Amino acid sequence: MAFVSGLRCRExxxxxxxxxxxxxDFCFGPLEVVYDYATISxxxxxxxxxxxxxxxxxxxxxxxxxxxxxxxxxxxxTPLLKARNLGxxxxxxxxxxxxxxxNPSFSFKDRVVSVAATKAREFGFETIACxxxxxxxxxxxxxxxxxxxxxxxxxxxxLERGKVIGxxxxxxxxxxxxxxxxxxxxxxxxxxxNYPWAFVNINMRPYYAEGSKTLGYEVxxxxxWRIPDHVVIPSASGAMFTKIWKGFNELACLGLLDGVDSMxxxxxxxxxxxxxxxxxxxxxxxxxxxxxxxxxxxxxxxVRPVRPDSIAKSLAIGNPADGIYALRVIKESDGSAYAxxxxxxxxxxxxxxxxxGIFTETAGGVxxxxxxxxxxxxxxxxxxxTVAYITGNGLKTxxxxxxxxxxxxxxxxxxxxEEALEGRAAKVSS
Amino acid sequence: xxxxxxxxxxxxxxxxxxxxxxxxRDFHLVTNIRRADVxxxxxxxxxxxxxxxxxxxxxxxxxSSTGVRVDPISGDVLQG
Lengths: 430, 80
Ligand SMILES: Cc1ncc(COP(=O)(O)O)c(C=O)c1O
Ligand SMILES: [Zn+2]
What we know:
heterodimer, A: Rossmann fold, Rossmann fold, 2 domains, 6-stranded mixed β-sheet, 4-stranded parallel β-sheet, 15 helices, B: alpha+beta, 4-stranded antiparallel β-sheet, 2 helices, 4 strands, 28% helix, 41% strand, globular, binds pyridoxal-5'-phosphate
């Protein structure tokens, strides 16, 4: 069973039952899950987690859906690698990569969708749907297939081929909308009012978003129940960013971190900050769509929406729903926010691939280039424990790095091979 | 009759325009503000509009045409 006592409005604190709701009827603010932490603290332990499955469901006590029979394609428990080569390049001795690009549908979205799909089935929905910049559509379609539910995915019609195919293969009803993501989004909110569907990022959103907390839990567990000094995270809506922070703080409050005393949560569970959580939260966006970074740089507490024009399509949300909450987390954690110049997105993809053998999509390129900037500017010290979150897979955005393809074209003879090899060596040394 | 929940985001000088008043005067919409945060250079208002369906549509289109950004409320909490 899940230890959820209901939903609460993030803005006016009004309480609601734990149903398929996402907006406060009174102030139209977003609703968030309320947990019964008193009971959770009695049952949860490191041993109990370690004995769980090798997926996000090992943390089911801290998720808003029952872990007894989840819709699980084994999202999560992805590798955390020490990045020696990239670290050396950047002058960082204690750098780790959280490689979430190897999830079942190849992005971190499997974490949130696994929770949303489980919840949708619990509520009795027969169809799950989403508005997506790509990765979410892949994940919704995959989980629906697993759960035996119908899925309807709405995408902008100009998406990368890898994402379109990567979603279509699971057999959803795919709706390609002539327009930007923000327009798809608008349409879906109207569709959601008229069809009895579980839109994972509309009426399921309070449950869905909680799935990203597992990105915080896992990194802490993989580091031996410690938290990093710095994390670098790519943001679109800003939801994942805030949930990783929440995940670290929950672990601390429940006394699960090494050498950290437990603490009560207080009435506003979503803003709890345990003093032992000293991780600096660094946000990465691409310059062509960086509304949250802009607000941070200008010292605003509100986010001015933008019209996205970026190669990093998975991050191209012009009106980020959790932007103001993400700004608060940056401030609270003494972190920062950086907008990566567009040409450096591809440079970041290549740098990670060439140093660590990990092929990430454009969102990961944004993360790596932001990491590079943070290291070069001295914001991250050489010995500080740093984790960069790589949240999506390069095979989905191959167009971005088409230029790397430059084979030696030869005839099938030794002579032709050696001639070509010498030619390449001469080219490289010149 | 129809009803819609929307968020208006104002930038620059638009903060000073009586947009919501005009929705009542020119489109006969009843507006009900639920939350707002308006600064010197940037502001937003979350509200519900009531009125004839076509008038809501025309009214919101007019608001967009002034340069004010209009987003549906569930759109306010989406991510991709
Ligand atoms: C690969 C990838 N990374 C990061 C994000 C950003 O997530 P959020 O919207 O929670 O900020 C997305 C969102 O679409 C994504 O697809
Ligand atoms: Zn409220």
